[in-house]
# Entry
Amino acid sequence: MTLGKILLVLGIAELVAPRRVVDFLMGLATEEGSDVELRQWVYTAARVEGAVILLWVLWRSVTKRAARLTDGS
# Structure
């Protein structure tokens, strides 16, 4: 369940502010002072990834809830 919450926050962040998320993660992945230029589509891909993550988390939540309801009947 904790992983689902982490993914939910990441998905929302990528959907709302993809440039900030990508720039932060690229700062972690590259050495300080290195000159890396990202193409514009990277931010669009991050936004799409955020939407897919959100849909997956929500779908998983709904199916788990439905399974609990049918098992309880």
